[in-house]
Amino acid sequence: MTNTAATTQVPFVGYLELNAGDPHLVAHECRKCHARFFDRRNLCASCSGADFDLVRVATRGTLRSFSIVAFAGPGVEVPFVAALVDCDGTTVRGNLINCEPTPDAVHLGMPVRLATYSLGTDSNGVEAINYGFEPDLGEEKR
Amino acid sequence: MSASEEIWVLGINMTKFGKHPDLDAVDLASNAAIAALADGGVTMADIGVVAAGNLLGNGAASGQNILKQIGQTGVPIYNVSNACATGATALRTVVMAIRAGETDMGLAIGVEKLSGVGLLGPAASGNKDAPWEPKGRYDAVGGIDGRLGTQAMPGVFAQVGMEYLHTYGQTDVSVFAKISEKNHSHSTLNPLAAYSKAMTYDQIVNDVMISYPNTRAMCSANCDGAAAAVLVSGSKLKTMSLEQRRRAVKISASVLTSDPYQEACQVLPDVNTLTRNAAKIAYEQAGVGPQDLDLVELHDCFATAELVHYDNLMLCAEGDAVAFFESGAPWRDGSTPVNVSGGLQSKGHPISATGIANVWEICHHLRGEAGDRQIEGAKVGLAHVIGLGSACGVHVLEKSSV
After folding, report:
1. 0.90 surpassed by complex ipTM
2. Which of A123, B105, B179, B316 is such that its CA lies 20 to 30 A from the CA of B136?
């Protein structure tokens, strides 16, 4: 689209906070047992507690598991790296991005960090921003 | 079992797994049920309860529709649905009905038509031109499959296996293809398997990549098939013929569990804790340990899944699944033969039939009727299935002492 009007950005999922310059994930944390959840909650799945706090999830973590998906359902671009990331004790699901989707480039236990990217702008001028995890080479984020 | 009444498999059957273009799900289920009844030497008139499973038929293969072909006796029918544990759930339902004293004989049926269905998992990611509007429990503005990891089964189970390696500090993924090599080798002795060709390690790793490290040969085969079992109470069995009592197989444990909360279980399904829980309960109910098992049929929906279940079923010490495999233990001539049927990777996985077909395989060996693939002298076996979401069924079976 060549629409030059200011676009509105929306996070791809409700638990992604875009905060200009400081994107991060948030979780519903059970006030009683501290189990964390990313979806809308009824009660805590661990202790059935009813009270939650919205907490910030660490943006750096390690690759706990992955699969390089080469074959997927219609409309899903392949290959991509499906990843499970241990963010300081909270496990998060996402794609590994800014990394070759090959077994040589992806390693169990590798350090990664949250990164965001655009999924495109819809006909209403709304741009969806998604998160993924990229290799964390230790340098400061730009 | 905790209750005093013993439960036995009186008759059991599985159809050939594979492509059955001329049979619909009701035909397949009927064939398995008729053969299971004949195997047990009884008829529909003896059956007091029916439990039936079929996931993808939209009700076309309900227990009622099957009985319309084999005998509408008016007995209660439970149509059950529990993902890949549906067949085991049907069995378990009949076990509970007999144990509750509602009847002394029941029929469990599972059937699926899956040939050509392709990848099982999420629906398509939706209309690419749809506006970004929040929907669902995550307020996602579009389809999440492929954008936040994968929901398709080959990738989910790939991560299950890779997580196991990571947890125990291992990096060599070759064990997964080697497991597949074992199961494809085992399948050459199974005339009812959908695929019964041996495959070399190289052929397996060089097959079409589906979801690393799982290639096509390391994925369960979608196919058509049905299985059915007639269960009977111990007291009823005592009144039956010597031949029936000799061939009957004792269900010394029947367990169904769901996934208890664990950190990360709502991010990647946890197939481990509920399997370990089911195994613990089953060994306790049956009064046997993993070392007593002469053969195991476990849910190798993907090669990456088989590895973790060696550990979950306590066939090895915690963390030792790779070493257990490398020792040769789960090969048919090893100390704990696993998936001598060829497993889901070659025998096939017609979802709702699987949990009964695995029990059929064990019964076949305990009865000494397994032909070329007979595990000599088999007395005790374990059948395990898991359905994502999650449900786990474990049955321990013992040879009759008659």
Report:
1. yes
2. A123
